[in-house]
Write a structure and sequence with these properties.
single chain; alpha/beta; Nucleoside Triphosphate Pyrophosphohydrolase; eight-stranded mixed beta sheet; 5 helices; metal-binding; NUDIX_hydrolase-like_dom_sf; magnesium; metal ion binding; NAD-cap_RNA_hydrolase_NudC
């Protein structure tokens, strides 16, 4: 069973935290609810290939995208974690947190912003159902710096890392939180941390590999804009 969600939320997102039956009653024009999450990072996993570029890469905003299984609908296309809100989810946000955990192994720590709301019609043999998807920018508990674990060092507030003989953390050996993504192979075959330009190449230029579906690319590009605006407003250089 998934662990109990443990997250906070921006105050303006409180309407999504009401009990699911109440939310359904308020939004009774919809027959089905879907939730999605967008997870950002300003660091990238270190590999021998990018080690020399790592310092510059730390300042580059990237988003987690999952590649759909080839056996699934829209096979091979890219998306953020998400899925249907289940009847036994306490509320919309709990459903999103559950889907993030199931599809990426990451635990939502905060709901930051509503990035998108999309509607579409699902045709049934005897009716047409209106479906809505709410996509949120979220932070995750795993987004912590690597720390030394030699001889019990560290305060427990970071991701354990491999260490050098002197007890320091070797940059090329750090087990960064971005590498802790754990996929459900029945749903996704790969994950990447992708830049805004890489998303744009797939969405607008149609030349890139990160192609999405059902308007997801537009929502992702909008989320990048939101993240830049947040950085300007709070004077920070950090992402969600």
């Amino acid at each position: 069973m998934p662990s109990q969600p443990n997250y906070t939320l921006a105050p303006h997102l409180a309407p999504f935290a009401v009990p699911l039956p109440q939310f359904r009653a308020i939004n009774d024009q919809y027959a089905h609810f879907v939730g999605g999450a967008l997870i950002f990072s300003r660091t990238v996993p270190c590999t021998p290939e990018n080690q020399e570029e790592r310092e510059d890469a730390k300042t580059l905003l990237r988003i987690l995208l999952l590649q759909r299984s080839y056996e699934d609908s829209y096979g091979g296309q890219w998306e953020g974690p998400g899925g249907s809100i289940d009847p036994d989810d306490a509320n919309i946000l709990d459903g999103v947190a559950r889907e993030v955990l199931e599809e990426s192994g990451l635990h939502v720590s905060r709901f930051v912003e509503l990035a998108g709301k999309e509607e579409w019609v699902r045709q049934r043999p005897d009716r047409a159902d209106l479906v809505v998807k709410f996509t949120f920018i979220v932070e995750v508990h795993e987004a912590k710096p690597a720390v030394s674990t030699r001889d019990g060092e560290g305060d427990g507030n970071g991701v354990p890392a491999d260490t050098l003989a002197n007890g320091g953390v070797a940059p090329a050996l750090e087990r960064r939180w971005e590498e802790m993504v754990s996929l459900d192979p029945a749903e996704h075959r790969d994950f990447k941390w992708v830049t805004e330009e890489e998303v744009r190449e797939g969405e607008e230029d149609l030349t890139g590999k990160y192609k999405s579906f059902a308007g997801m690319g537009r929502v992702i590009l909008g989320a990048f804009r939101m993240m830049r605006e947040r950085a300007l407003l709070d004077g920070s250089d950090s992402g969600a």
